[in-house]
Amino acid sequence: MGYKRILLGYDGSEPSRKALQKAIELTKEFEAQLCIVGVVRPFEFAAIDFIPPEEIEEYEKEELSKEEKYLKEAAEEAEKHGIKPSLKVMEGEPAEELMTYADENGCDLIVVGYRGAGGFKRMLLGSTAGNLVKYANQSVLVVK
Ligand SMILES: Nc1ncnc2c1ncn2[C@@H]1O[C@H](COP(=O)(O)OP(=O)(O)O)[C@@H](O)[C@H]1O
Ligand SMILES: [Mg+2]
């Protein structure tokens, strides 16, 4: 029983930091592997035609390096607990990318926070978390 390879979706938000703590606990408990993935959304804007490509590129570069920084911080936290996680930044729609990662890397549990960075307040459960619960092939732990 237990889980062998745990995937944490990490966006640097407070709820995802809480999910990190839980993922660390479970990784130790089950002597599992921990994978931490951050997904950067591509630039989306209706008036994309009016924005110079350099600015879009600049925006995406900034988002990527921000996510890399988050992952580094998460890894440092895990290392304090004797865990060496694999890290990956992906680009696309967060739930979709996390599911692809989990399928391709044999993860058997996905851990996320119940809210993320910049969600709609009226949504009780974040859209990434909700879509994972609905569509992932793996068990999903939504940490509260
Ligand atoms: N871009 C992302 N990359 C990795 N994990 C994410 C990302 N966005 C959200 N998550 C995970 O999903 C959890 C819930 O976030 P989300 O469903 O996006 O809520 P919200 O709608 O409030 O942003 C986060 O705490 C985090 O664990
Ligand atoms: Mg979100």
Q: Could you characterize the architecture of this molecule?
A:
- By secondary structure, the chain is α/β, with parallel strands linked by helices.
- The protein has one domain: HUPs (Rossmann fold, 3-Layer(aba) Sandwich), CATH 3.40.50.
- The protein contains four helices and five strands.
- The chain has helices at 14-29, 53-80, 94-104, 127-135, and strands at residues 5-9, 33-40, 86-91, 109-113, 139-143.
- A five-stranded parallel beta sheet has the order 3-2-1-4-5, sandwiched between helices.
- α3 (94-104) crosses α4.
- The longest helix has 28 residues, at 53-80.
- The two termini are 23 Å apart.
- 32% of the residues are buried.
- The mean pLDDT is 92.
- Residues 116-117, 119, 126, 128 line the site of magnesium ion.
- Magnesium ion (MG) binds at residues 116-117, 119, 126, 128.
N- to C-terminal separation? 23 Å
What's the CATH topology name?
Rossmann fold
Question: What is the count of distinct domains?
Answer: 1
Structural class, by secondary structure, is: alpha/beta
Largest sheet: 5 strands, parallel
Small-molecule binders: adenosine-5'-diphosphate, magnesium ion
Named at the architecture level, the CATH assignment is: 3-Layer(aba) Sandwich
Radius of gyration over all CA atoms, rounded? 15 Å
SSE ordering: EHEHEHEHE
**CATH class categorisation:** Alpha Beta
Estimated share of beta-strand residues: 15-25%
